[in-house]
Structures are given as structure tokens and as C-alpha cells.
From TrEMBL:
Ranges for domain IclR-ED: 67-236
A Pfam entry, by short name: HTH_IclR
Gene: ndgR
Gene3D superfamilies, A to Z: 3.30.450.40, Winged helix-like DNA-binding domain superfamily/Winged helix DNA-binding domain (1.10.10.10)
Keyword DNA-binding: yes
Transcription as UniProt keyword: yes
Keywords: DNA-binding, Transcription, Transcription regulation
InterPro entries the UniProt entry points to: GAF-like_dom_sf, HTH_MetabolicPath_Reg, Tscrpt_reg_IclR_C, Tscrpt_reg_IclR_N, WH-like_DNA-bd_sf, WH_DNA-bd_sf
Protein name per UniProt: IclR family transcriptional regulator NdgR
Length: 239
């Protein structure tokens, strides 16, 4: 399919932004992803940094910029959050555990939507909470389908292994037991954008005593179903 608008510089800038959807990206990775020359990619990326449409992380890699968040907010609706809201409540009610949606943001993952368990012992993760990409089932999901270089980078100092991530890709869901916080278990599954790329993770979390030491066996299928429904809603809405 031809994605050209006929305005070359806009098409090239859009290609750079599309490549950054996958997460922190080096200049070399941008060149490979866009098929553009290195000088062109460098010039475009620096111009986009100037306008805050692109930023840089602590390692100097390019990331989507803060201006995009402001523009998305101004547009009045975040389709992921809108699609996830009622389904997170459904997931919480079906499992009896708190449910969340996480997006990757640089070297962290951010809770962008949640439905808390109303009573009793629960794992409370308010919207806006930033957590590590080195531990937890949502981090596993957000990393598992990355390209080889990002995968290796993400595994440095992580509490999970390449074998665990291979299992996540095979099953379609991830589980963790006390990885992020002692005594807390979780199960997560990937939310995919219209292109098929993993853009978020749906999770449930709670005490190991309730979720057991095999939380994925207990709830993996349902978490995957909810993640698929959110992905389908995003596709229908044309995100």
C-alpha cells in the first residue's frame, strides 16, 4: 500500500515517528526502519526534537516527544484508554483482582488506566504510576516482541530471562511472582495497534495467596481475551 501523501518531507517525518512507536531507537535503527539516508534521518530527527515531537532518553536514543502527549490530550480522547476502561472493569469483576493497562515510556512503563479491586487486600497502582521495565509481567509483555537489539538491551539487569520471554511469545501471556514487589503476582497480555505492533499490556495483579503460584494458568486466557478485545476496538476506531 502506498502511504505517500505527495509531500516528501512530511512523509519522511511521519516515517521517523512511525519507527519510534516501537520505543527508544538509535539513529542506526531509524535509518534501517525508514529506509532513508543517514543524513536525512539525522536532519529530520533533530528538527523533530526542536519541536518536541521527538525527544531523547538518558542513553541518547530517540523517543516520541512530550509534545505528542500534549497534542493527544488536546484532541480530547485517548482511544486506548477509552477502549480499555469498560473492559478493565469487566476483567476486574471476572477475576476479583485489580486490573491495569501499561504503556512503555522510555525505560519505564506507565499505568494509563486501571480498575481497582474495591475491597480487601489489593495491589494498588494509580494511573500515572511509573514502574520498572526490568521486572513484572507487563514489562515482560512490552519487551517480548521487541527486535533483537532492543530485547538484549531490555534484558540487562532484568529479573526475567530470554527463556521466560520466549515462553511469553509462545503462550501469548506473561506471569510474575514477586518480581516487582514481594508477595505480589500478576498476569499480562499484549494489546496490539492496527499495524500489529504491541503498544500496551493489560494486567491483573494481587497477592500470591489469591492468585496462586500459577496465576497464568488461572487467568491467562481471560487476560488474553480482554487484550484482544481492546486491540480489536482500536482497529475498528482506526488508531
Amino acid at each position: 500500500m502506498d502511504n505517500s501523501s505527495g509531500v516528501g518531507v512530511i512523509d519522511k517525518a511521519a516515517a521517523v515517528l512511525d519507527a519510534l512507536e516501537a520505543g527508544p531507537t538509535t539513529l542506526a535503527q531509524l535509518v534501517a526502519a525508514t529506509g532513508l539516508s543517514r543524513p536525512t534521518v539525522h536532519r529530520l530527527a533533530q528538527a523533530l526534537v526542536h519541536h518536541r515531537l521527538v525527544g531523547k532518553d538518558v542513553h541518547g536514543r530517540f523517543v516520541l516527544g512530550s509534545r505528542l502527549v500534549e497534542l493527544a490530550s488536546a484532541a480530547g480522547e485517548d482511544r486506548l484508554i477509552a477502549a480499555a476502561g469498560p473492559l478493565l472493569i469487566q476483567l476486574r469483576d471476572a477475576t476479583g483482582e485489580s486490573s491495569q493497562v501499561f504503556r512503555r515510556q522510555g525505560d519505564s512503563r506507565v499505568c494509563v488506566a486501571s480498575a481497582e479491586r474495591p475491597v480487601g487486600l489489593r495491589d494498588t497502582i494509580p494511573v500515572g504510576t511509573q514502574l520498572s521495565m526490568r521486572a513484572g509481567s507487563a514489562a515482560q509483555v512490552l519487551l517480548a516482541w521487541e527486535d533483537h537489539e532492543r530485547l538484549l538491551d531490555g534484558l540487562q539487569n532484568a529479573r526475567f530471562t530470554p527463556t521466560i520471554l520466549a515462553g511469553v511469545r509462545r503462550r501469548g501471556w506473561a506471569q510474575s511472582l514477586g518480581e516487582r514487589e514481594p508477595g505480589v503476582a500478576s498476569v499480562s497480555a499484549p494489546v496490539r495497534g492496527p499495524s500489529g505492533r504491541v503498544i500496551a499490556a493489560v494486567s491483573i495483579s494481587g497477592p500470591i495467596e489469591r492468585l496462586t503460584r500459577q496465576p497464568g494458568r488461572l487467568h491467562g486466557d481471560l487476560v488474553c481475551q480482554i487484550a484482544t478485545q481492546i486491540s480489536e476496538a482500536l482497529r475498528q476506531n482506526g488508531e
